[in-house]
Amino acid sequence: MPTNTNTPPNPHPPSTLLTTLLTLTESTIIPLTTTGVSSGSKLFGASILSRDTLSPITTATNNEALSPLLHGEINCIQQFFTTIPPSSRPSPSSCIFFATHEPCSLCLSGITWAGFNEFYYLFTYEDSRDAFNIPYDIDILEEVFKVRGENEGEGEFKRRGLYNKNNKFFKSKSLGELIEEVEDGKEREYFRGEVKRLKGLYDALSETYQKGKAEGVGSESVWK
């Protein structure tokens, strides 16, 4: 598998990264998302942070009520480039990108084209499909991008990854994978509990979104 040679090692221990990203999700992203889902947008949010200080630079959530392209990650990238003057805007390669949900094909492309080379996410594609009844991240990657190789069997085809998570453009990890890098066993259990608690906070957001979808709350998204 190709390795990203352009991304420097993250200077922070996994426990520091986890604490920062979980706190940011609960204190900032979830309140933004609560407002968004009430207007018909999905419950996906994102943030761009300084790699050195882990200070958040830009945070945003999905705004498909306005445009089907304004996924949380794309909205966050747009704000990063349009609201911060070039003279004071850090290089994307000096930042880390955090998405509450594993980025879809659109957002993977946006993160790559914008020059962010390290990202983390809380929920996996399978979580989005199974817990939130939003299967389109997997569907689009499988139907549009995943091409069966010559003489490739069905089992081999299904086992093949939907995208290369560690490549020359970026490296990515779920918070679940990051937890496994925490050396202390008690700390690992603590973070597993925190992730479970935080994921539980999204249950109410999902109910609001699904209720609005059933009631026909306006959204520009084709795939709801």
Automatic annotation (TrEMBL):
It comes from the Eukaryota. Gene3D superfamilies: Cytidine Deaminase, domain 2. GO terms for molecular function: catalytic activity. One of its GO terms (biological process) is nucleobase-containing compound metabolic process. Residues 44-122 form the CMP/dCMP-type deaminase domain. Signal peptide: none annotated. This is Nucleoside deaminase. It comes from Podospora anserina (strain S / ATCC MYA-4624 / DSM 980 / FGSC 10383) (Pleurage anserina).
